[in-house]
């Protein structure tokens, strides 16, 4: 709409020039500048509207997950366990689309570790297969401490009472305990581990296979079922609290939305492109994909317990496209849309906008091939296996697409006359020789 308004304004002012109206050129310059400024503000509003809607969808699906978990723990049957797993998978779809907001917004980046931190040393939370997992770690004293089985832990030389498993204990005492990032006690992946258990299949077929009796008080397997239920309930409630906090940040008068409204358009556009470029390159192409491919290590896959990694990567890309185009389809089918970065780039350099869309769709094609392969029965961790040339190529094609689209995002920064943006990097992309040292 704004682009059409600008077109009509240009046409009408050109008529004024032809009729010799004095000062029209100055008027043209000032008015077009005003329209472009308004367009930039509209882009930032769309960006905030999509953030609010996507986080709200993540909250809605997390509440469905909580309901399914409540049903599971009150009636632990295989059917109810599968329903809880399905609810977790559904909850990942909108949440992954929010990740394009992470790196460009400090308020999101500081918060993200509470809800989506990985990889995690799952032995902190519950029992593990010590033959597969190991029994200790030089980097993490809590590597196999198993809070579900123990009512006291030693953290930094001090005995800590963990008899009562609460949201506060998880968030303030256990999460990143001892300053170790792998001590992930909260968020989606802690819930994932509790629902699926360890994936002991390496690069072979199959995900985690936790028995439903792990949640049965009357027929308890692997002991401490009451504490496991308490942990699962508390960590799910905490996830909802955290998502409610982020939804509020993007609502009217929320901190994140007000920051965009009160800041300059240049700062807002920089936030958008920082999020796109950093997620595309260092985080997704590098840390989440290329690193695991170089090591051929299934422990490096993002959703490693559920074998849902193909979807996590796919919806990260969808989130980037949402932000660029200014269009998001909600879980109920409603569309949230408005002017996006694409509108602004198209008005300045249509060829560059086409290049960006072409790059996104090339990556989307590669992502879709990977996703279809996983859905046909060959999971992402199987594609990672050393010597699996076809599987490795599917993943490498995704990495190459993400790297290629990042180069075009860098061009967007230049054409929009923004200051140089230092996108997140990754040793796996920038200094691969360091990975094997």
Main sheet characteristics: 2 strands, antiparallel
Mean of residue pLDDT values: 92
Quaternary structure state of the chains depicted: single chain
Succession of helices and strands? HHHHHEEHHHHHHEEHHHHH
Rg value:
24 Å
Number of separate strands: 4
Question: What global shape is seen?
Answer: globular
Low-pLDDT residue intervals, each spanning 5 or more residues: 9-22
TL;DR of this structure?
By secondary structure, the protein is mainly alpha-helical. The protein has helices at 2-18, 24-74, 78-97, 106-116, 130-133, 167-174, 188-196, 225-250, 255-262, 265-295, 309-325, 341-348, 350-375, 380-383, 389-415, 427-430, and strands at 152-155, 158-161, 327-329, 335-337.
Write the layout of secondary structure elements.
Elements: H1 2-18, H2 24-74, H3 78-97, H4 106-116, H5 130-133, E1 152-155, E2 158-161, H6 167-174, H7 188-196, H8 225-250, H9 255-262, H10 265-295, H11 309-325, E3 327-329, E4 335-337, H12 341-348, H13 350-375, H14 380-383, H15 389-415, H16 427-430
Antiparallel strand pairs: 1-2, 3-4
Structure description:
The longest helix is centred in the first third of the chain and has 51 residues, at 24-74. Mean pLDDT is 92; it is low at 9-22. The chain contains 16 helices and four strands. Helices cover 62% and strands 3% of the residues. It has a two-stranded antiparallel sheet. With 437 residues, the protein is mainly alpha-helical.
């Amino acid at each position: 709409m704004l682009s059409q308004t600008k077109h009509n304004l240009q046409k009408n002012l050109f008529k004024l020039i032809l009729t010799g109206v004095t000062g029209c050129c100055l008027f043209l310059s000032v008015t077009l500048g005003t329209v472009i400024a308004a367009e930039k503000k509209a882009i930032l509003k769309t960006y905030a509207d999509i953030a609010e809607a996507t986080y709200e969808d993540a909250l809605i699906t997390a509440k469905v997950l909580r309901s399914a978990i409540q049903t599971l723990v009150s009636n632990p049957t295989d059917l109810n366990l599968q329903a809880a797993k399905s609810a977790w998978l559904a909850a990942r779809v909108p949440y992954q689309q929010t990740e394009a907001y992470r790196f460009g917004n400090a308020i999101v980046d500081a918060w993200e570790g509470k809800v989506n931190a990985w990889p995690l040393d799952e032995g902190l939370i519950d029992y593990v297969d010590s033959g597969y997992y190991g029994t200790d770690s030089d980097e993490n004293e809590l590597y196999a401490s198993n809070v579900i089985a123990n009512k006291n832990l030693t953290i930094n030389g001090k005995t800590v009472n963990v008899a009562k498993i609460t949201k506060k204990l998880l968030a303030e005492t256990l999460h990143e305990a001892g300053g170790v990032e792998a001590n992930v006690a909260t968020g989606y992946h802690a819930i994932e581990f509790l629902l699926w258990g360890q994936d002991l299949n390496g690069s072979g077929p199959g995900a985690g296979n936790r028995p439903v009796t792990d949640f049965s008080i009357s027929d308890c397997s692997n002991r401490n079922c009451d504490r496991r239920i308490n942990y699962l309930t508390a960590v799910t409630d905490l996830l909802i609290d955290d998502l409610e906090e982020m939804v509020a940040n993007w609502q009217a008068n929320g901190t994140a939305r007000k920051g965009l409204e009160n800041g300059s358009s240049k700062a807002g556009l920089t936030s958008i492109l920082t999020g796109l470029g950093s997620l595309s390159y260092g985080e997704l192409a590098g840390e989440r994909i290329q690193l695991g491919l170089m090591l051929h290590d299934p422990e490096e896959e993002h959703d490693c317990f559920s074998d849902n990694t193909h979807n996590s990567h796919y919806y990260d890309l969808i989130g980037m496209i949402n932000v660029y185009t200014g269009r998001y389809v909600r879980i109920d089918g409603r569309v949230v849309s408005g002017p996006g970065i694409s509108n602004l780039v198209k008005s300045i350099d249509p060829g560059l906008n086409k290049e960006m869309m072409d790059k996104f769709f090339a990556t989307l094609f590669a992502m879709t091939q990977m996703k279809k392969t996983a859905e046909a029965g060959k999971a992402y961790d199987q594609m990672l296996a050393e010597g699996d040339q076809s599987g490795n190529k599917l993943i490498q094609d995704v990495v190459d697409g993400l790297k290629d689209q990042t180069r075009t995002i860098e061009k967007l920064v230049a054409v929009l006359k923004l200051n140089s943006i230092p996108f997140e990097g990754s040793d796996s992309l920038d200094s691969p020789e360091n990975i094997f040292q």
